[in-house]
Amino acid sequence: MLAYLSRSAFVILCLPLTFSAHSLTTEAEKNSLKNVIPAFKANYTLLHKGDPVGKAVRELSYQKDGKTTYHYHTDIKWLIFSDKRSETSQVIVNNNQVIPQHYVYSREGTGRDKNYEWQYDIANKKAKDLKKERQITIDITEGLQDKLSYHLQHRLNLIENPEQKRFSYPVISTSGSIKDYVYQYDGEEELMLPYGLVKTIRLKREVTAKKRVTYAWFAPELNYLLVKLYQVKAGAEQFEAQLASIENNK
């Protein structure tokens, strides 16, 4: 039902008196992911045909070991249908490139429950399915993302290249296959959301084989945070997510 629409090192030798290690470190920190996208928690209202049916949370946090954790979960209750989903992607970000390390997904509710857990060693072209205890070789390594980390990469790309009209991401699925996720610029729009009035750019992803179209709205004034998501499959509305509030985390 749902589509889910992370240091450089240097050696200091013989620094001139006009410079210091502190000033160089500060310059490096200025360009770190923490300063580009500070830790946050964004809360969304989920709707089906205009009616509230649940909530969602998108969250970014930074760990002491230098890794970044990106998390997304949803909780839906509609008539006799229930659906809870959780995705967590642990990544490393180097020069604005998100490198996935560990991905966990769970789904429970009406129908069959699902659980997946993968570890990635992108540099050595390896991916390990921890649930099935199998390891596969991956053909694509440059820019490869998991099913959640590409959202973070996409936001970084929007921040760095706001005029870009087409974005493509090789994404490894929970089965180990790799597909390109392509988003096209689809216009600008001013939205009234539970959060308030925001100006946005709209992107579109179309999966012809599944007759599915996903629209995603990002707000430049909120550092290109995703503020709305809407999906249609075979002409029928699937779901809609609208930003309700933002919390800044430390």
Automatic annotation (TrEMBL):
Keywords: Signal. It comes from the Bacteria. Residues 1-23 form the signal peptide. This is DUF3108 domain-containing protein.
